[in-house]
Amino acid sequence: MTEEFQKSIRTQKLFSSGARVLLAVSGGVDSVVLCELFYRSGIPFAIAHCNFSLRGKESDADEAFVKRLAVKYKAGFHGIRFDTENEAAKNKLSIQEAARNLRYKWFETIRKENHFQCIATAHHVNDSIETFFINLLRGTGPDGLKGIPAKKGKVVRPLLFATRHEIEKFAGDQHLKWRHDSSNDSDDYLRNRIRQDLIPLLTRLQPSFEKTMQQNMKHIAETSLAAEEWTSEKMEGAFRPAGKGELKIDLSGLQEKWMEFLLYQFLKVKGFNRSQAAAMAAPSPQRESGRIFYADEYEALKDRDHLIIRKRKKALLPALKISASTKSIRLPSGTWKISRRKARSFSLPRDASFACLDASKIKFPLTVRHWKEGDAFYPLGMKGRKKVSDFLVDNKISLFGKETIFVILSGSEIISIPGYRIDERYKVTPETKEILIIEPTNSE
């Protein structure tokens, strides 16, 4: 396995000779083997371990084990403890998402501070297969079916040539010791259910399943690359001269049957999604002139049979957080005052620019961000759910005016479009005891 490991690093050019590498080590069999192979290969490394404080004494024992591992290999040790549950709750994330965000951010900090060339993780073939099925079940295109990349930015994965069985056999043959993570036995997570239920079934149906999936993902990656090159060739002929910093695409120069695919392939790197590409490619009269499509950093203006792509003229403000103690927020539309009043001593104003909400139904921190395609809420006084985009059209908000529209969210639910409407579910009722008021300062 040592030779295959070294070959994997060379052929995929994961890092240069003499590089110092930071290894992400949990203490499980995969990361222990990663340490052993780096040690045998004479590659200088240090160990980074995250204690996510999710399994009590078991997590602490993992940390102690990894510290001993660092001593064994005469490697530097970097450790940290996270309050993962609190981080997940604060940012409305799953435990897995919060843990992933925390560890990769911290790994990069350690890498920079200590001048490591890259970060190595112990992902292997089976991890890549599981990721394939997770993305497949959630819905994805070819990019989501390529598996885990061997190199992405400063993160490398030199064990992607090996299966879980091969790694465990090597560890057993070399009498290595490792820790078992009991959370891997739980069926609470989709990845675990795929690992424990789906993949064993598919392996019974096809004994060479793992190697077959390796080839499948390789073929998909090659097909995806070919599609990107084909897209570039097809799109090149549709480009037209435009203003400085703008890109103009002649839609009439693209084949109708391929238009949606080509636009999505080309524009996804700028942050546009598939549904937006479909709307851009819709045949007339649905392909309405004058419509603007928004991504985080770019906007696409539909101008008859042309599409004009440009950086957003008014840069999006980053999402803001409103804590329970926040007194005001500043938006492009003005400054908004935030206060609380007892319901029994407050008369609801008739001015629609005031947002008066039942404070007991709101969970802090609130999020304030620019509205985006797909956003929807339940407008006060109306029956049913409505897309924010449709609400803005109904209220005759101009194209440029839409750039100043923000929404306020409690968790994942929009509770107000400041200055226009609150959500029906958060309105003040006779049972309301305390009111949260968001009002424009110029109305006082």
What is the strand arrangement across the widest sheet?
A: 3-2-1-4-6-5
Give the strand content.
15-25%
Largest sheet composition: 6 strands, mixed
Distance between the termini: 73 Å
What is the name of the CATH class of the largest domain? Alpha Beta
Over the alpha carbons, how many angstroms does the gyration radius reach? Answer: 27 Å
CATH superfamily of the largest domain: HUPs
Overall shape: it is globular
Number of strands: 22
- The number of distinct structural domains comes to 3
How large is the count of helical segments?
Answer: 12
Rounded mean pLDDT is 89
What does this structure look like?
The protein has helices at residues 2-11, 29-40, 57-72, 84-90, 95-114, 125-138, 164-173, 190-205, 209-236, 256-267, 274-281, 388-394, and strands spanning 21-24, 45-51, 76-81, 118-120, 151-152, 155-156, 239-240, 246-250, 292-294, 298-303, 306-311, 320-322, 328-331, 334-342, 355-358, 366-370, 376-377, 386-387, 406-410, 413-417, 421-422, 434-440. Helix content is 36%, strand content 21%. A 6-stranded mixed β-sheet has the order 3-2-1-4-6-5, sandwiched between helices. Strands 7-8-11-10-9 form a 5-stranded antiparallel β-sheet, with no helix packed on it. It has a 5-stranded antiparallel β-sheet with strand order 12-16-19-20-21, with no helix packed on it. By secondary structure, the protein is α+β, with helices and mostly antiparallel strands. It has 3 domains: 2-216, Rossmann fold (3-Layer(aba) Sandwich); 237-311; 320-443, no CATH class. It starts with a helix and ends with a strand.
